[in-house]
TrEMBL record:
Residues 5-47 form the FANCI solenoid 1 cap domain. One of its GO terms (molecular function) is DNA polymerase binding. One of its GO terms (biological process) is DNA repair. It comes from the Eukaryota. InterPro entries: FANCI, FANCI_HD1, FANCI_HD2, FANCI_S1, FANCI_S1-cap, FANCI_S2, FANCI_S3. Residues 58-275, 369-532, 797-922 form the FANCI solenoid domain. This is FA complementation group I. Residues 280-361, 546-780 form the FANCI helical domain. PANTHER family: BC025462 PROTEIN (PTHR21818), FANCONI ANEMIA GROUP I PROTEIN (PTHR21818:SF0).
Amino acid sequence: MKLETEKIVTLSDRETTEELQKYLSTLTRDEVNEIILLSSAYIFSLLGENSTSTEGSNRRLLVYQHCIPLCESGDLQAEVAADIIGLLMLETHALPGSCLAQLATLFLEAIKGGKIGNGKSLELFPTVITALSACETLSYGKGELSGEEYKKQLINSLCSSRWDPQCVIHLTTMFRDVPLSTEELRFLIEKILRMLTKLDLQEVPPLVYQLLLLSAKGCKKQILDGIISYFKEQDDCLEEERKKGNSMDLEVQSMPQDELRHVEGTTVIHIVFALRLDHELGREFLKSFKTSYGDLCPFSIALLLSVARIQRYEEQVFDILKGAIIKNFKDEQLLQGSDLVKTLIQDCSSVAQMILETVKNSMFGWDHVTQGLVQLGFSLLDGFGPKPGPFGKTAEDCGTVARTPAQQACQLGRQVLLQGFKMHEPIRGEIMEQVLNRLVAKTASPVSHYLELFSDIVNSAPMIVLESSSKVTETFDHLSYLPLATVQGLLKALQPLLKVSMTLKDALILVLRKAMFSSQLDGRKSAVTGFLLLLKNFKVLGSLASSQCSQAVTASQVQVDVHSRYNAAANEAFCLEILSSLRRCLSQQADVRLILYEGFYDVLRRNSQLSSSIMQTLLSQLKRYYEPEEDLLPPVKLEPCITAIGDQVYLQEPLGHLLSCTVHCLLWLQKLHQSASSNADDSDNEGEEGGYQSELQTIFDSMTGRMIKSEMEDFELDKSAEFSMVSSVGVKNNIYTVLVMGLYEVLLEYNFIDANYSKNRFEEVVELFSRYNKLSEILKEKAGKGRVLSHKTPRSLLSMGFISTLLTLLFRDSTQTRQEALSVLRSNGEFVRYAVSVAVQKIQQLEETGHTDGPDGQNTEKTFQFLCDMTSVLMWRYTNIPSMVEDAGKKEKRSSLSLLCLEGLLRIFTTCQQRCPQRMTQTWRWTSSVTLPSST
């Protein structure tokens, strides 16, 4: 055979091919096959036969028929196979139509039979198809077709036949070089997309890559939609399997989740790369989402977030996502609010849930998605957070339960950032920096949603936040310039870290000390707020456990024993040093003192070992305004409580709040000592504590008696005096009136609690109220006369807990031994109305701000319990005493007591729905099973 091949090569080198053709005609089929196996040079010689005879064409066809399976077999080296295919491609156009048709049939049968191995021979197929389409006529069945029509029939047959999954990628690659009409391309793509489900997961990204290259021919939307639909179906199947596994306690999984996520991640990278190169593909991609928000799924969301890294598409992507989120929340709101709509429309898929699922999936190495998640989270917070309302009031309270679509979108942004912070270390620093930057920069806008996010981050990953403590320390430098609400929220969120980080605590204390002497009032208020929070959280050894007292700050996941690191003496010295700094506030403006008085009660309950220092401070401050001479009226000095700057008069000392703080601290300590009277350890401090307790009780009793005896003239007040807020005299009279009214209220509460249901003491309570009511009526009268409203009803200084107890005693208490004393209060209609009015005022404040003034006003557990107690009382009063019997209400131009009760109930329900709907549901279930008494 060697001699025959050498002769063929020699003859092929001659100028004419006549001798070569003559010699080849003498070779048998088997001899030709053996020659082909020897070398590509011999193949070239065989193809070089330019004979137009049938025998020559058949021999060349034989070469093709033998070489194509040979290249697919894998027996040849890659370079040799490539050379052979290259030689075959060069001579394809020289073949007659009949041979081309047979070659096409050969390929078609190989594809149908699954005989395509490495796909090398398919590089020749586009050349065969192109040559076929150039033929004028071809035999087809019993007739003839043009080459172009024959090509169409061939492609139709090929796309309609069964494909081996192993050859799908090769065929897709091959069709990139085949000229196709739009219809043929659409048919082909449908075929390839259907084959996606039959491939192994690892083969999907390469096929997607080839499809994206094929999209250069057209049908871009069809390709993108098909890829997204495939992964959406895979996610749905995985979720169904998970649900079945949970219900049957079995692990049923047809595909590994981690493998699917990695495949999705690789596919996203391929698509983003294609969009960078093909702008038309990018426009088609975004257009498909703009027209149909409902097609979103976790995979498509991940794809959008990755595409957002391309600058030209960034703004459009986030507009699409925000629009889809808001639309979905609106649809859900409409669906939940109408039973008719529920019957007509099935439950809409939750875009929010899909986005959170995308965050969860991103932990599988989706680094190209994480940056988009950060941008999306802050975009939602910035775009849908609470907006500033008129007069600086927040239009929406972020502390309420998210109900509007905008609130839900803002909450979703928080969840995305929080989950992203937990899962991805590279973006933690950026999230922390952006949150803190917004807290510092957005001084004119509400930042409660950023504070909540920061608090969530600290509570969920405190040790991780400590790694970025330098960023937190930098923020401390801006405390003096931030709004008080921002400072309160920031320091409250940082409490868990201050307990475990000495560096952070020292940096904060240094900043607070500087702020104490700030020229800005807000800076000094921030310093007081910060010091009070430190006192509440750095407990001195021996104080009550947090479970035994009201906690104004929620417990953190960081549970540390500060005494294991700092001894009791050091902790106590630290707290006493802070108290020393706070005493300086007692010479500052009323707003600063007010914060101090509001905070001392919570400090005392959290840090009871500081009681002596706190009470001595309050006693010393109270003595500045208390008149010790028993014969003098009134018992307080009002002149030092005001100050003048130019022709303007200002309040300097909120005397009612000072007295209220002192009273509640004393009452709590008395209750504490009564419960612990059997504890011998308390005997050491009994003498000292007994001293200031006795002195304070004496002062309160003396003040009560003399305040009852005092008339308006004793306070330099007259009902005919000027109360206009446009003159310094009117301002002074208003301040004096409000101060005296506050003193009456505080003494009223103290005497009621201290009376122990004594009839005589309750009569003193009524006397105190009558004087308070007289001043209140004068303010109302003076306010009604002017054109411009010059007076607002002063906020009551009664505590919410006391009001809750008082209403219960007035309307529902049936204890026999108390009836005589309570009748003194119940017989006074104005007092009863006053109690209900204050309750409505407290409920309104809780509804608007989420907290109330006074003790336990910021304790959500206790305030909710107070609401429950008042609900029971107000409901009973409204349903058992008809408004028609209230004759007093008919004669006067004011709401009847029943309407006041109804207003209180309405506000309670609104407050609970907005701020604690879950608790409301649980409480309703509990109260529904309990039969309440129908009368006292």
